[in-house]
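tool=predict chain=A
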Amino acid sequence: MSIWSRIAHAFRPGSLDRELEEELQSHIDEAVESGRDPEEARRAFGRFLQTREQSRDIRVATWLDSLRADAVFGWRQIVKRKVTSGAAILSLALAIGACTSAFRLVDAMLLRPLPVADPGSLFVLRYEVLDNDDKKDTADSFEYPLFRQLRTAVRGQAEVMAISYASQVDLTFGSDEEMEKAYRQYVSGWTFETLGLRPELGRLLAANDDTKPGGHPYAVLSHDFWKRRFGGDRNVIGRTFRQGTSTYEIVGVLTAGFTGTETGTMTDLFVPTMMNSKAIDNPNWGWFRTWVRLKPGVEGEQVRQKLRAAMLASRQEKAKAWKSPGAKHRTEQYLNAAVSLESAAAGVSGMQQTYRRSMIILGVLVALVLLIACANVANLLTAQATARAREMALRVSIGAGRARLLQLVLMESALLAIIASALGGLFAAWSAPFVVSMINPPDNPARLVLPADWRVLGFAVALALAVTILFGLAPALRASSVKPASALKGGEDPHSKRRLMHALVAAQVAFCFLVHFVAGMFVSSFDRLANQPVGFPPDRLVLLDTQAKKDLPQGTWDQALEKLRTVAGVESAALATWPLMSGNAWTSGVWANGHTPDREQPVYFLGVSPGWLATMKIPLLSGREFRLNEANPDFAIVNEAFARRYFAGQDPVGRTLETSGAKDKRFTAQIVGLVRDARYGELREAIRPTVYVPFNSKDDNGVAKGTDWGAFIVRTSAKDPLQLASVLRREVSSGRPELRVSDISTQDALIRSKTLRERMLATLSMFFAAVALLLASVGLYGVLDYSVIQRQREIGIRLALGARSNDIMRRVTTEVFSMLIFGAFIGLALGIASERYVETLLFQVKALQLSVMLWPAVTILGASVLAALPPVFRAVHIDPASMLRSE
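tool=predict ok
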């Protein structure tokens, strides 16, 4: 009989039994028909049941049949104990779903390879820099003149590609009134060929498209953008669109899958690097990453050394022009910067750097929640295994081996894990996109690829198997080690079971304490960061980022500003280079009162119009605001931090400062005002010295010059400033059609965007802490309830002999609560040790702070008391008479 027939018979036991019975009966009937006595014929076949089972073993795969039978029996056990099974399934489903969701996020952001040929040979060049606090960091922005030298240095050993940061741009396929936003990347013409990509339609960019600045205005669309924007129209090839002052022709569409190299951003269109003509020959404009693909057989270290040498030669040449007093110190830092090649198999993005550690921490938290859930279910199953001791003893007595009992109990655990995994998968399908929506603000959301493919399926299967072993093995070993004689007499030692359950309680409490400890640090960090002073009231401020097709004189911008001030509902309006805390920064060295840029941190600069201070409601402490006829770099207003650093806190109004321009030319500005400190950059950094200069500016020769971008800052009388958004957008362009609002936001939203990571960590960690607390409480309740049931006769006798209620309470809870305290101390030690791994995510919070340590202790103690009340209440209300009658 074939193996497939034996497997098929394992899933049709009823039909097979009927066929065997009919076949055996037919043989008996034939013997009777041949003249034999019916009883003699039956005796000749032996015992009917035994013969049928022997025949059945020949026709069926016995191992599969036993698994099927155990699965059926396990399902009956699950259905029989609906409440217990439901609690186990829901707790496991929540934990498994959280783990699967965390894996999907970590996989999409950090692990999933780019859909290109041999992603393992892709690297990105990075170099060492000092951050604002003089701590070592790395950067990856490069200038095109240097890129040419790098490519020449490793020619024949590696292919070097320039791929810009993905940026959101305004473009139009029709009139200027039909502007839309899309994500664009500049790429070297040979990038697609190097990555092994193919077109769905048309052709891709080639090396010949990337030779002349502004000479080849071609674009390739991503498959996703083609489907979303054009509905898959195959006639899109040859269509044109305008972006800025350039008109591009669409020459191709990429195949599905590749959406750019920046994880978290789906690039819509790709254009040659030479189309960024303003930056091609600028040696000081870093605007792209340098990607490196190693040739087969070439060592990465060899290529890195050559790239390092090329960078050093370029920097040495550039440093020769530095003649400022601080040039020596700056040159040493510049020339000694370390260079590294970092793997780019999974893409490269700022989001990866920002959220890498956060994703890992969240993964650890959900793993701890899973362990708590497993310990919880293991306790429930251990209690059930104890209750089934007589059943197991009977099975052993009639010949069942230990392996057979292990299989029986593990099959029930596997069924629980499979059902929980299915429900957890549904939870993960919702929760992973939900977490992604928390990462970036609505106007610039993270876009991660979260497919439910073989990677996710493989993780889910491996997780279900691991969970089955984690919570099912201990109860299975306990059940399979039963001693028939002792169990049938009721002589099993109940204390041995409770020791295992108490140990699991200690583990649950330790993990729960750790989760609450870390969650408390994250919540405290978010609270302190979100309440950092910004120096101005951000409510009712609407921000209009505005662009022009070309540099426009100050008068044009002033006319649009005056138009906005006449709009109903506008209290005041002003112009700035960009809004405060927008993420943009203009820094420069300053000479003032004997101080030089040699050892000083760079100073923030911002161009503002007259009336900006009043609109922002930043108090003017001394001096005056700018006047209409004043221009940068002749006049300046400084903040308190500037006065403290450069003038020892004295009033600097009437004094001067100097800044450097092109070719290290120095300019002198008169300080005409002193203002209160206002936050320019990130919430995590201290408010730095800031110099405000007139929005109107002059070039190095003193000639007035225009600008093609700026931000209108409008304070409204309405609580919701976005109510005026459409009106303000229309008014900017109505008077001056050369101006166009590219983005509208509020100052409140801008500030909230600075705490996105912290808000996500605080929210999710609190959710996991609540789940962990619930699971630990259920586990504690289960152990105490089981303990009371096991000891109810003992308790009844003690009550009959005059024991007090508080004595019963102490006896019931002492052992469990001692394990709770032990677990809490273990959790506290783990929490203190965890600080070193999460300290970069914290803000003004330390693990040894009393509030951080008390939060989990008080929470877990309160939950434990609530969980203990029902079992204790049951214990002290046991009826001694009924217990003695039972004896």
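Residues 379 and 500 are 8 Å apart (CA to CA). The two ends are 58 Å apart (CA to CA).
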